[in-house]
Amino acid sequence: MCFYCKNETMRSAVTTHVVTLENCVIIVKNVPCEECEQCGEKYYSDEVAEELDRIVSKARELASEVFVTDYNKKIA
């Protein structure tokens, strides 16, 4: 169920996740999510949220001002 509009219908989708830090912006494309069919709010599974945390942590080490990556490409 959608937290915002209370709609019960979700669909599988992909989205772009953007994190703005004090010194850079991290953009992760093609992130799998569930999307509310009524309002469009996006939800991540625990597994996807953990992977996004890992990607953002690694990108912080590598990024200067803007860092763009694809969710499906692993950052070493």
What does this structure look like?
By secondary structure, this protein is α+β, with helices and mostly antiparallel strands. It has one domain: Roll (Ubiquitin-like (UB roll)). It contains one helix and four strands. Strands 1, 2, 3 and 4 form a four-stranded mixed sheet that branches. β2 and β3 form a beta hairpin. The N and C termini lie far apart (35 Å).
| Count of individual helical segments | 1
The coarse overall form would be elongated
Kindly give the count of domains.
1
Q: Rg from C-alpha positions?
A: 14 Å
The name of the CATH topology is Ubiquitin-like (UB roll)
Number of strands: 4
Brief synopsis:
This protein is of the alpha+beta class and 76 residues long. The chain is 22% helix and 39% strand. Strands 1, 2, 3 and 4 form a four-stranded mixed sheet that branches.
Keywords:
39% strand; four-stranded mixed beta sheet; 76 residues; Ubiquitin-like (UB roll)
